[in-house]
Design goal:
The structure holds three protein chains of three kinds. Chain B is mainly alpha-helical. Chain B contains seven helices and no strands. Chain B is globular, with a radius of gyration of 20 Å. Chain C has one domain. In chain C, helix 1 crosses helix 5 and helix 3 packs parallel to helix 7. The mean pLDDT of chain C is 93. The chains are: A alpha/beta, B mainly alpha, C mainly alpha.
Chain lengths: 234, 224, 226
Amino acid sequence: MKILELRGVKKRYHANSALNGIDLSIEKGNSLTVLGPNGSGKTTLLKILSGIMSPTEGKVIYKNNQASENDRKKEIFFLGHKNSLYNSLTVLENVNFVCRLFSRNNGDASVENILREYGLWERRNDPVGELSQGMKRRLAIAKGFLIDPDVFIMDEPFSGLDIRWRSSTLSKIKDFKRQKKSLILSTHLVVEGYELADYIAFLHRGKFLFIKKKEEVDIEEINGLFDSPEETLK
Amino acid sequence: MKSGKIMSTLFFLLIILIPLDLFLIFKVAPTEKIMGDVQRIFYLHVPLAFSAYLGFAGVFFSSILFLWRKNMFWDTAAYTSAEVGVLFSTLVLITGSFWARPVWNVWWTWDPRLITMLILWFIFIGYFLLRKGISDQFKKARYSAVLGIVGVIDIPVVRLATKWWRSIHPRLSREGGSLDPLMVKIFLFSLLTFLSFTVFLVFFRFRVARVEERVTSLMKRLED
Amino acid sequence: MSFLANAFSITSKDIRLEFRGKESLSLMLFLSLLLLVIFNFALDIDRDNISLLAPGILWVIFAFSGILGMGRTSMAERDEEAYLSIVFSPASAESFYLGKVLSNLLFLIIMESFTIIFFAVLFDFERIIGSLLELVPSLILGTVGFSLIGTLFSFLSTTSKYGEVLLPFLYLPVVVPILLGGVSSMDIVLNETVGEGTGKWHQIMIAFDILYFSLSLLLFKYLIEE
């Protein structure tokens, strides 16, 4: 089943176009990694996929239009550039607030487990504003896994994470994938992006240079694309 | 091209209507016994108020259509109507002042109609401040549409609330009987002139805005 | 039912946020007190004119302290895009709006109560506490109106580059009917104006509240998209 589909999506800010005609379809249980240089439109693309931003032109179709607006909101989780945390609330209060909105009664055990896993349990009663950038990022990711959405959209999930947390987050995302859930992420870390992908798309100036199955893509080729996209493609 | 046709028709109509209207107001209309020549402002002031309201009605409906259709066309229509509305409401407030000075011996009076017009003027100055502060054009369009709808809906409530102060504004309905029939005819003619002028201005400003948008997008493309 | 539950979750989150951060309510109370002092210097308030001046002074303070507080609470949502955690949850835009309206309403009511007490104490005007029962309907209706418009407009203004500074320009013109209703009702009660009832002012405030509640429920969803 197609879970998300974009048809001829364009997005303009002022006169600048961020996306320039994107067609895309993602099957349930598949993962897509969007690679591309800064300013290529990755964030805009993910925001449109998540439903928070409407395209200037084109269509976004979720589950063949068979799900309600409310289902869409419930089933998609978007981890943005910013962490979407309340700085004055403590770690636990942030987590509990979201759990309550999802009417998840995960019980304290699962909250405790995931916070321990991300090294946040000791800081659970500290206001988020007092945590380091890396810790905030971990909390934002942990919140996503606690909610356990059907579609997880991640914008640069590894930003601000050091090597240790990067690898444990990577394995956590892999676990998530194994549950046959859909994953869309953008990153400029080619190795991690490659590892998590079923499909890889390369975005340049608001257009896909390609979107291919992972097996058909060579990791060296991608590295070349970052350096000089036009020439490598020729 | 349909709008072009309406515009050129209106333009030629207005070339005739405006001088004729001015001639009627200053040469043909009888001088009012008590107020004297200053009463002639009435032929400008009241139609200007109608024009301002027409502009704001344009904002209201364009804003609703924008939120419904999500088409930038309606955003352009909304803000161009708002500009024309602000222009005319400014003129209403100024001509009202000129009227009030000799007749009521004050420049300004806290009359419901005046307050309503002033509040409306404030709301739409806020409308343009809001637009100036948002750079994403789609977001700007959506946010200002919300403000446009909320602002216009406020008019009847403000009007009702302010009405409970004693009004000293001359009322057409009550004094209509005593109004010279010629005065009424000239007033209606003037109203027609101003309303067509408003429609023309909105159309004209709309086309300019579309050209502006086109030029900026072409400039951007050149830069890329 | 989950509609109300979600709204209450958001309200209780705001209360907790206020309890932790002390960012809006304390500032509102402080501004109220400060404005009372300023009005004292500006208006030369004494026993004879106090009941005439009270409605205007109090409602102006309610309006301005309210702007300050509601601007703050919506900045707290925009900060770090925290509000996205509500947007990407099963909570609807309408319950989001209702939740914010309720928390703003609560903060406004607390601020107004303290302002009235400050006023009674500073200007030795105990009579206002005595007539509180008669004042409550117009205070509630007016405050609901403030919160409805303030919640909607603080979300409007905080996306623009001017931020909260824009809020008074949008908010004050629109709440004019509420200000008129609030000031007039309080004036009628305090000065026992003969032949004037507060009824019609209550009606206009009820009309305002219903109108903007239903309108905002329709429009709020456009403000939380990007």
